[in-house]
Design brief:
The chain has helices spanning about 1-20, 30-40; strands at about 25-30, 45-60, 60-75, 80-95, 105-115, 125-140, 145-155, 165-179. The protein is of the alpha+beta class.
Protein backbone atom coordinates (compact mmCIF):
# COMPACT_ATOMS: atom_id res chain seq x y z
CA UNK A 1 0.00 0.00 0.00
CA UNK A 2 2.76 2.45 0.95
CA UNK A 3 4.72 1.79 -2.24
CA UNK A 4 1.60 2.36 -4.36
CA UNK A 5 0.86 5.65 -2.59
CA UNK A 6 4.46 6.83 -3.01
CA UNK A 7 4.44 5.92 -6.70
CA UNK A 8 1.11 7.75 -7.17
CA UNK A 9 2.46 10.92 -5.51
CA UNK A 10 5.64 10.93 -7.63
CA UNK A 11 3.72 10.11 -10.82
CA UNK A 12 1.20 12.89 -10.14
CA UNK A 13 3.99 15.41 -9.62
CA UNK A 14 5.80 14.36 -12.79
CA UNK A 15 2.58 14.46 -14.86
CA UNK A 16 1.57 17.81 -13.37
CA UNK A 17 5.04 19.17 -14.07
CA UNK A 18 4.85 17.99 -17.68
CA UNK A 19 1.41 19.51 -18.19
CA UNK A 20 2.43 22.92 -16.86
CA UNK A 21 6.02 22.74 -18.25
CA UNK A 22 7.47 23.51 -14.84
CA UNK A 23 10.48 22.09 -13.05
CA UNK A 24 9.86 19.04 -10.88
CA UNK A 25 12.39 17.63 -8.43
CA UNK A 26 12.43 14.38 -6.49
CA UNK A 27 14.88 13.75 -3.63
CA UNK A 28 15.83 11.28 -0.91
CA UNK A 29 16.82 12.59 2.52
CA UNK A 30 20.05 10.81 3.51
CA UNK A 31 19.77 11.66 7.25
CA UNK A 32 17.07 9.08 8.19
CA UNK A 33 19.10 6.36 6.49
CA UNK A 34 21.79 6.67 9.19
CA UNK A 35 19.73 8.16 12.04
CA UNK A 36 18.86 4.81 13.63
CA UNK A 37 22.51 3.95 14.08
CA UNK A 38 23.26 7.27 15.80
CA UNK A 39 20.40 7.13 18.35
CA UNK A 40 21.79 4.71 20.93
CA UNK A 41 23.95 1.62 21.36
CA UNK A 42 20.81 -0.38 22.19
CA UNK A 43 19.36 -0.23 18.66
CA UNK A 44 18.79 -3.74 17.33
CA UNK A 45 17.63 -2.74 13.87
CA UNK A 46 16.51 0.49 12.25
CA UNK A 47 15.48 1.78 8.83
CA UNK A 48 14.37 5.25 7.86
CA UNK A 49 13.74 7.13 4.65
CA UNK A 50 12.53 10.58 3.71
CA UNK A 51 11.24 11.28 0.20
CA UNK A 52 10.58 14.75 -1.18
CA UNK A 53 8.82 15.96 -4.30
CA UNK A 54 8.67 19.57 -5.44
CA UNK A 55 7.09 21.45 -8.34
CA UNK A 56 7.71 25.04 -9.41
CA UNK A 57 4.48 27.07 -9.33
CA UNK A 58 5.86 30.60 -9.90
CA UNK A 59 9.20 32.28 -10.56
CA UNK A 60 10.51 32.02 -6.97
CA UNK A 61 7.99 29.61 -5.42
CA UNK A 62 7.35 25.89 -5.27
CA UNK A 63 4.98 23.43 -3.61
CA UNK A 64 6.00 20.00 -2.46
CA UNK A 65 5.22 16.82 -0.57
CA UNK A 66 7.43 15.09 1.98
CA UNK A 67 6.98 11.51 3.14
CA UNK A 68 8.91 10.19 6.16
CA UNK A 69 9.07 6.61 7.40
CA UNK A 70 11.15 5.23 10.25
CA UNK A 71 10.92 1.78 11.78
CA UNK A 72 13.20 0.15 14.30
CA UNK A 73 13.65 -2.09 17.34
CA UNK A 74 15.45 -1.09 20.49
CA UNK A 75 16.30 -2.98 23.68
CA UNK A 76 16.17 -1.33 27.08
CA UNK A 77 15.27 -1.79 30.73
CA UNK A 78 11.64 -2.65 29.80
CA UNK A 79 12.62 -5.23 27.18
CA UNK A 80 12.51 -4.90 23.42
CA UNK A 81 10.32 -2.16 21.97
CA UNK A 82 9.53 -1.57 18.32
CA UNK A 83 8.78 1.87 16.90
CA UNK A 84 7.12 2.97 13.68
CA UNK A 85 6.98 6.62 12.61
CA UNK A 86 5.09 7.92 9.57
CA UNK A 87 4.71 11.53 8.49
CA UNK A 88 3.46 13.35 5.41
CA UNK A 89 3.60 17.11 4.90
CA UNK A 90 2.75 19.68 2.27
CA UNK A 91 5.58 22.19 1.84
CA UNK A 92 5.75 25.68 0.38
CA UNK A 93 9.16 27.09 -0.55
CA UNK A 94 10.43 30.54 -1.42
CA UNK A 95 13.73 30.95 -3.29
CA UNK A 96 14.64 34.64 -2.85
CA UNK A 97 17.98 34.43 -4.75
CA UNK A 98 16.90 32.45 -7.81
CA UNK A 99 13.99 31.84 -10.14
CA UNK A 100 15.23 28.34 -11.03
CA UNK A 101 14.55 26.54 -7.71
CA UNK A 102 18.13 26.55 -6.55
CA UNK A 103 20.37 28.34 -4.03
CA UNK A 104 18.95 29.60 -0.68
CA UNK A 105 15.35 28.73 0.25
CA UNK A 106 12.93 29.09 3.14
CA UNK A 107 10.20 26.48 3.65
CA UNK A 108 6.98 26.17 5.63
CA UNK A 109 5.49 22.70 6.18
CA UNK A 110 2.14 21.47 7.48
CA UNK A 111 0.95 17.87 7.67
CA UNK A 112 0.23 14.74 9.69
CA UNK A 113 2.45 12.38 11.66
CA UNK A 114 2.11 9.35 13.90
CA UNK A 115 4.57 7.53 16.11
CA UNK A 116 3.66 4.12 17.53
CA UNK A 117 5.86 2.45 20.14
CA UNK A 118 4.94 -1.03 21.34
CA UNK A 119 5.26 -1.52 25.11
CA UNK A 120 5.15 2.27 25.68
CA UNK A 121 1.55 3.53 25.20
CA UNK A 122 2.28 6.90 26.86
CA UNK A 123 5.03 7.66 24.34
CA UNK A 124 2.77 7.36 21.28
CA UNK A 125 1.26 10.27 19.39
CA UNK A 126 -0.81 11.00 16.31
CA UNK A 127 -1.58 14.48 15.09
CA UNK A 128 -0.57 17.45 13.00
CA UNK A 129 2.98 18.59 12.40
CA UNK A 130 4.25 21.97 11.27
CA UNK A 131 7.64 23.54 10.88
CA UNK A 132 9.96 26.06 9.26
CA UNK A 133 13.16 25.22 7.42
CA UNK A 134 16.01 27.01 5.65
CA UNK A 135 18.48 25.42 3.26
CA UNK A 136 20.56 25.61 0.13
CA UNK A 137 19.89 23.66 -3.06
CA UNK A 138 23.13 23.21 -5.01
CA UNK A 139 22.78 22.08 -8.63
CA UNK A 140 25.89 20.28 -9.87
CA UNK A 141 27.33 21.82 -13.03
CA UNK A 142 26.00 20.41 -16.34
CA UNK A 143 23.80 17.99 -14.42
CA UNK A 144 20.24 17.55 -13.22
CA UNK A 145 21.47 16.22 -9.86
CA UNK A 146 21.46 18.35 -6.72
CA UNK A 147 22.52 18.26 -3.07
CA UNK A 148 20.41 20.12 -0.52
CA UNK A 149 21.51 20.64 3.09
CA UNK A 150 18.97 22.26 5.40
CA UNK A 151 17.90 22.81 8.99
CA UNK A 152 14.43 23.32 10.40
CA UNK A 153 12.42 23.55 13.59
CA UNK A 154 9.43 21.21 13.91
CA UNK A 155 6.40 21.13 16.23
CA UNK A 156 3.82 18.33 16.58
CA UNK A 157 0.34 18.51 18.09
CA UNK A 158 -1.84 15.56 19.08
CA UNK A 159 -5.22 15.93 20.74
CA UNK A 160 -7.55 18.91 20.73
CA UNK A 161 -6.44 20.39 24.06
CA UNK A 162 -2.73 19.65 23.92
CA UNK A 163 0.02 22.22 23.56
CA UNK A 164 2.25 21.68 20.49
CA UNK A 165 5.25 19.50 21.38
CA UNK A 166 8.59 20.65 20.01
CA UNK A 167 10.27 17.90 18.06
CA UNK A 168 13.13 20.39 17.89
CA UNK A 169 15.84 21.22 15.42
CA UNK A 170 16.16 18.71 12.61
CA UNK A 171 18.75 18.49 9.88
CA UNK A 172 18.23 17.26 6.36
CA UNK A 173 20.57 16.38 3.51
CA UNK A 174 18.60 15.69 0.36
CA UNK A 175 20.10 14.21 -2.77
CA UNK A 176 17.91 14.36 -5.84
CA UNK A 177 17.24 15.08 -9.46
CA UNK A 178 15.36 17.77 -11.40
CA UNK A 179 13.13 16.75 -14.32
Amino acid sequence: MGKKMLFAIIAAMVVTGSVFAQKVSVAVNAVPLVKGFMVTNDVISAFGIGLNGEIKIASNYSLGVRLDLFTGKQSGSLGTASETYFGITANGRWYPLSETLEKFFMEAAFGFNTDKIKNAPNAQFTGIVFGLKAGWKHMFENSKIFAEPGIGYVLSKSGAMSIPTPLGWQIAFNIGMVF
